[in-house]
């Protein structure tokens, strides 16, 4: 057991987003979350990264309750990386500095060491020549790939991908998904919130359909997409025209 | 205007006492000398103002619950300093503080006048910096924190560099105001340009030195203002889409 959510609840004002959600994710597992807008996919990932405090329940990493109030979130965030829908690169820093900032400031690596890691990772994802570029000189797809590299450079055990292709032009989606495909082989645990049903089916070990702040149905992608049993899952898949 | 004004009945008198060429040439070098003091006050106050303003803005923007009392203090300080005219602070601090019996050089009105400028302008410019800090999108903070950077590292490396870049134009506006308000320090003693103009005026019973002083101020403030506008326009071009006609 790697990551566990027990009865996690989260509301924003009077709007309940997660209500008693249970989830267990094993090491190396790739789990996708599907569901309509507002079903809590993003909130779920942000809670796991401790960007949002939860109202109730517990989040455990290797049996250790990381969601305790007052706990320093920084050591935990080193183990859990997140990639955002809107990239959130630092616009005033070069690609290299975007990647090395946390390596030097958080992990305490020397600048040479950090630059070397950045170089290797960028080369691995076909971004070697962009090392000195600034975010606004890159396409959306390139920016998102840099954001993935930035999260990966911290060598996290768990990577959270929050609708990472939703802000991209259709022709740029492929290059970003290719990166995720490559990562699947590397054994990193991934939690993916996505609207790309075909991609979720292809890449996931397990797909979770979120509805009403809980996991309404989960299972292997084949089962969820071919033979959904829950009426809400069926409706959702019909609505997004998934065949 | 140029046609009508000279026809006014007492124009001749006004022209003689405000636009007297001889007085202008006589006073100008003296005023220029005195203006050096204005520039000096401006030059040593500005770094102190910026440092104080940054400190206040960072304290006010901090999210650490433990710093709540400091936040309250900073808000009160900014409200009080901004709520009273600068000239009043110059009087209160410039006359009040040396009055407790400080020895030279710590009783200099020049020193305490400058301190008053720093304390008041620090509060004004703190609000400029705070607006800049608030303008950096929350997602930048999320990205930084998610990488494990602490709140203060996030402020230092991610938020402040972006915030400061954005507030350079409004900051320049306030510095133009400061450049003029430096003259207020003359009211508690130091002989800078405004005071020198007053002396010349009294000596020759002629107001032309004031006009000369105004010209000297404009020589500095107009280029500063134009530069500000240029920076503003450049910033707008950089951040917004194609201009709509």
Question: What do these coordinates show?
Answer:
The complex is a heterodimer of chains A (243) and B (245). Chain A is of the alpha/beta class and 243 residues long. Chain A has a single domain (3-239), classed as P-loop containing nucleotide triphosphate hydrolases (Rossmann fold). Chain A contains 9 helices and 10 strands. Chain A has helices spanning 41-48, 74-77, 95-105, 111-124, 140-153, 170-184, 197-203, 221-226, 231-239; strands at residues 3-12, 15-25, 30-34, 56-61, 64-65, 80-83, 158-162, 189-193, 206-211, 214-219. Chain A has a 6-stranded mixed beta sheet with strand order 6-7-8-3-9-10, sandwiched between helices. A 4-stranded antiparallel beta sheet of chain A has the order 2-1-4-5, covered by helices on one side. Chain B has one domain: MetI-like fold. The longest helix of chain B is centred in the first third of the chain and has 41 residues, at 21-61. Chain B has helices at residues 11-18, 21-61, 68-83, 86-96, 109-135, 138-146, 151-181, 193-204, 208-239. In chain B, α3 crosses α5 (109-135). The chains are: A alpha/beta (243), B mainly alpha (245). The A-B interface holds A 46, 49, 51, 73-75, 77-78, 81-82, 84, 86, 88-92, 101-102, 105-106, 147, 150-151, 154 and B 139-140, 142-150, 153, 157-158, 161-162, 165.
């Amino acid at each position: 057991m790697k990551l566990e959510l027990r009865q996690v609840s989260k509301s924003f004002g009077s709007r309940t987003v997660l209500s008693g959600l249970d989830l267990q994710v094993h090491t190396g597992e790739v789990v996708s979350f599907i569901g309509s807008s507002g079903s809590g996919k993003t909130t779920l990932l942000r809670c796991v990264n401790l960007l949002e405090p939860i109202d109730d329940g517990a989040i455990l990493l290797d049996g250790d309750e990381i969601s305790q109030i007052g706990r320093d979130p920084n050591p935990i965030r080193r183990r859990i990386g997140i990639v955002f829908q809107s990239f959130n690169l630092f616009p005033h820093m070069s690609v290299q500095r975007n990647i090395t900032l946390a390596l030097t400031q958080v992990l305490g690596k020397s600048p040479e060491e950090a630059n070397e890691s950045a170089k290797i990772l960028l080369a691995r994802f076909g971004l070697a020549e962009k090392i000195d570029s600034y975010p606004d000189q890159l396409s959306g797809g390139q920016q998102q790939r840099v954001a993935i590299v930035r999260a990966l450079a911290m060598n996290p055990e768990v990577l959270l991908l929050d609708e990472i292709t939703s802000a991209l032009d259709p022709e740029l989606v492929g290059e970003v998904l290719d990166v995720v495909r490559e990562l699947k082989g590397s054994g990193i645990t991934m939690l993916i919130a996505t609207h790309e049903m075909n991609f979720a089916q292809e890449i996931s070990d397990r797909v979770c359909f979120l509805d009403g702040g809980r996991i309404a149905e989960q299972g292997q992608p084949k089962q969820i997409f071919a033979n959904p049993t829950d009426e809400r899952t069926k409706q959702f898949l019909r609505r997004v025209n998934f065949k | 205007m140029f046609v009508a004004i000279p026809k006014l009945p007492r124009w001749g008198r006004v022209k003689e006492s405000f636009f007297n060429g001889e007085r202008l040439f006589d006073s100008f070098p003296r005023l220029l000398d005195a203006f050096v003091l204005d520039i000096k006050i401006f030059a040593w106050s500005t770094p102190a103002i910026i440092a104080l303003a940054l400190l206040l803005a960072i304290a006010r923007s901090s999210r650490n619950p433990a710093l709540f009392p400091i936040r309250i203090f900073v808000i009160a300080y900014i409200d009080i300093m901004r709520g009273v005219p600068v000239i009043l602070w110059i009087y209160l601090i410039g006359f009040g503080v040396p009055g407790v019996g400080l020895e030279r050089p710590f009783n200099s009105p020049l020193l305490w006048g400058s301190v008053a400028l720093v304390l008041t302008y620090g509060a004004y410019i703190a609000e400029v910096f705070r607006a800049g800090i608030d303008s950096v999108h929350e997602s930048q903070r999320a990205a930084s924190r998610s990488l494990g950077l602490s709140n203060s590292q996030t402020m230092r490396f991610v938020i402040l560099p972006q915030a400061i870049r954005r507030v350079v134009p409004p900051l320049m506006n306030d510095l133009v105001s400061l450049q003029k308000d430096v003259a207020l320090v003359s009211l508690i003693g130091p002989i800078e340009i405004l005071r020198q103009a007053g002396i010349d005026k009294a000596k020759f019973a002629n107001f032309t030195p004031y006009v000369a002083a105004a010209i000297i101020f404009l020589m500095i403030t107009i280029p500063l203002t134009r530069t500000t506008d240029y920076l503003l326009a450049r910033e707008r071009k950089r951040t917004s889409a194609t201009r709509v006609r």
